[in-house]
Amino acid sequence: MDHLFVMTYGRSGSTLLMGVLNSTPGYLIRGENQQAVRHLFHFHRDCLAEKQRRHPRRTSHSTHPWFGINGFDEAVSLDRIRELVDATLLRPEPDTRVTGFKEIRWYHEDLADYVAWLRQLFPGSRFVVNTRNLDDVAASGWWAQKPDAREVLEGIERRILEVADGLGDAAYRVHYDDFVADPTVLQGLFAWLGEPWDGERVRATMEVRHSVVPNRQQAQP
After folding, report:
1. Number of H helices and number of E strands within the chain?
2. pLDDT tens profile 26-40
3. What does pTM read for this prediction?
4. Which whole-number Å values give the CA distances from 34 to 10, 31, 38, 89, 197, in the listed order?
5. Which is more confident, 220 or 101?
6. Is the separation of the CB atoms in 85 and 37 below 8 Å?
7. In whole angstroms, what separates CA 60 from the centre of its chain?
8. Range of the domain at 125
9. Can you give the CATH number for the domain in which 85 is found?
10. Phi-psi bin for 9: left (phi > 0), alpha (psi -120 to 50), beta?
């Protein structure tokens, strides 16, 4: 399977974009996970860093404070984390060709390192970067309660775009205001994905309201 991740910030229209991607046969892009995968990134990075810092012969003795860290296996760690993410978060189905998730929490200073690790975890993975008019974002949802929302959003978007620029062909940028006004602008995204363009399917998906959480009564079968 191929892996695809949506990089953006909150209130950017990313749930609608996720719906458009998932309308493509064989695509299964999951929603947000509170950047839980970042915890696995820190686990892997910290263990590897300490292994490299400590003397292997000394840490092989049970009297050493870092006893056993020399046995940390980078390849095994990546394999097991990959299995964990696939089995618990992504859960691809028999007909899944492309999986991944969309997330709105790409604002950490070590974003470039995290994305590089994701590409190591899932070789060949690609990233769709979604942006929106920041004035509209700053006035939407919880952002409207933050007096410095516009400034914070500018910093987040700048960091995301800098990382995306470094990814070259592994990243593709879309803008919410553009594809909502004219869905055909997404033809470039589908060409980049190597998928045929189905304008009717995309328009039908965009006519469905997204980012709606059903209440308990509505959620009942």
Report:
1. 10, 5
2. 999 999 999 999 999
3. 0.91
4. 12, 10, 9, 11, 31
5. 101
6. yes
7. 38
8. 2-219
9. 3.40.50.300
10. beta
Q: For residue 145, which amino acid is it?
A: Q
Number of domains in the chain: 1
pLDDT score of 211: 84
| Residue 204 parent element (H or E) | helix 199-206
Q: Are 205 and 189 in contact (CB under 8 A)?
A: no
**Closest-CA residue to 155 (of 115, 104, 107):** 107
User: Which amino acid, 181?
Assistant: A
Give the neighbor-by-neighbor strand order of the sheet with 27-30. 27-30, 98-103, 2-7, 126-131, 171-175
**Is 96 in contact with 26 (CB distance < 8 Å)?**
yes
Residue 127's closest CA among 191, 171, 187, 189?
171
132: which residues sit within 8 A by CB, 6+ positions away?
11, 12, 13, 175, 176, 177
- Crossing angle of helices 36-53/74-85, nearest 10°? 170
Q: List alpha helices for 55-196, DSSP H.
A: 74-85, 111-121, 134-138, 149-167, 176-181, 187-193
Tens-place pLDDT, residues 89-115: 999 999 999 999 999 999 999 999 999
Amino acid letter for position 44: H
Task: Give me 185's structure tokens.
Answer: 């602008």
**Residue 18 and residue 31 in contact, taking contact as beta carbons nearer than 8 Å:** yes
